[in-house]
Design brief:
Elements lengths: L3 E10 L2 E11 L4 E5 L6 H9 L6 E6 L2 E2 L10 E4 L11 H11 L4 H15 L14 H13 L5 E5 L7 H18 L2 E6 L2 H7 L2 E6 L2 E6 L1 H6 L4 H6 L6 E10 L2 E6 L3 E3 L2 H9 L7 E7 L4 E4 L9 E10 L4 E7 L2 E7 L10 E6 L5 E4 L11
Parallel strand pairs: 3-8, 3-9, 6-7, 7-8
Antiparallel strand pairs: 1-2, 1-4, 4-5, 9-10, 11-12, 11-14, 12-13, 14-20, 15-19, 16-17, 16-19, 17-18
């Protein structure tokens, strides 16, 4: 197992910064996921850790040793690529054994370690087949086997599941989690898929435009996003977003929007009063997740009910997503499928005031985080 530290890491391509002052630490045995949209710098960061990309500024330490100038083969890492990088003319056995053959490991030890690794991955029956005879999932297991067989101190994985179909991705996601927990090898995993990030990582690093937006465990990233980008990027469907004003009301701080005025929860009021915004009126960007909006079809209204008209119904089996027009805003609510929602139907919805997120209109930073 290895401990990895990136200090003020930067990478320039021409006049542009692909990675800008990245600071992060990966603990021994941890599964860290770097997630973000295309071009955010996540793969470049991974390649710098691997030694496949030169560093423009900053330091990378593996087990307290600065490795900026250490060649990839001397860093004791194993990397799994998006395209698997297997040798199609070789058999599965030889593909897995290749890194050991390069190190001139004894043949009997190679055979033993390949057998152990293939059994761990459930592909021992494929060892005599050639790569071109394998399915996508089988090829992915071979690529994992080639990484595991070396027993490295660090695994680096660059979007290894992106070429698989949806069902195989779920299966291989579980497989990688199981293997990492069993081997306890420190792992840095890059993906653009926030579902992979949420389900696989002990902690998540969210990146955008070469900058780290937030680092935290999945629960924190989801429930306490540091800014509007993280709030919208993490979560499926994305968080609802609308403008509002926090102002003093008869019962304390309240939120006024174009479609309703509602009291803020005691917790949010306390955070705002302790934060930089104080107690004066302030324009904000509001966010709330679909599951925190209650759909009410009963004659008796729920607290602070808002009337809206269903614009679109999206049935997903266990859930239904309803796009509800309230004034000029469109809010997405998650509801039970047995409610029988239909387009054009007038309904009542309630926004859970304890689940509101408030962001600064200029920077997009959360007004609630850290207070």
């Amino acid at each position: 197992m290895a401990r990895v530290v990136c200090r003020n890491l930067m990478k320039r391509f021409g006049d542009g910064l692909a990675v800008n002052n990245v600071n992060l630490e990966v603990a021994e045995g941890e599964f860290l996921v770097i997630v973000g949209p295309s071009g955010c710098g996540k793969t470049t960061t991974l390649r710098m850790i691997a030694g496949l990309e030169t560093i423009s500024a900053g330091e990378i330490l593996i087990d307290d040793q600065v490795v900026n100038d250490v060649e990839p083969r001397h860093r004791d890492i194993a990397m799994v690529f998006q395209n698997y990088a297997l040798y199609p003319h070789k058999k599965v056995f030889d593909n897995i054994a290749y890194p050991l053959q390069l190190r001139r490991v004894a043949k009997n030890e190679i055979r033993q370690r390949v057998q152990e690794t293939s059994k761990l991955l459930g592909i021992e029956h494929l060892l005599e087949r050639r790569i071109r005879q394998l399915s996508g999932g089988e090829r992915q297991r071979v690529a994992l086997g080639r990484a595991i067989v070396r027993k490295p101190r660090l695994f680096l994985m660059d979007e290894p599941l992106s070429n698989l179909d949806a069902q195989l991705r779920i299966q291989m996601r579980r497989e990688i989690i199981r293997l990492q927990r069993q081997l306890r090898t420190t792992t840095v995993y890059v993906t653009h898929d926030q579902v992979e990030a949420m389900t696989m990582g002990d902690r998540i690093v969210v990146m955008r435009g070469g900058l780290v937006q937030q680092i935290g465990d999945p629960e924190t990233i989801y429930h306490q996003p540091a800014n509007l980008f993280v709030a919208r990027f993490i979560g499926n469907p994305p968080m609802n977003q609308f403008d509002g004003t926090v102002e003093q009301g008869s019962e304390g701080l309240q939120l006024r929007t174009a479609f309703a005025t509602m009291p803020l929860s005691a917790t949010i009021r306390e955070k705002l009063q302790r934060g930089p915004s104080g107690t004066g009126a302030i324009a904000v960007v509001c966010g709330i997740r679909a599951e925190d909006i209650t759909v009410n079809l009963e004659s008796a209204p729920i607290p602070h009910q808002i009337q809206g008209v269903i614009d679109l119904v999206e049935p997903l089996g266990s859930d239904v997503f309803a796009s509800v027009a309230v004034g000029k805003e469109m809010l997405l609510a998650r509801a039970r499928p047995d409610l029988g929602l239909r387009e054009g139907q007038t309904i009542g919805i309630g926004l859970n005031p304890a689940k509101l997120h408030l962001f600064a209109t200029d920077s997009g930073d959360s007004l609630l985080l850290g207070y």
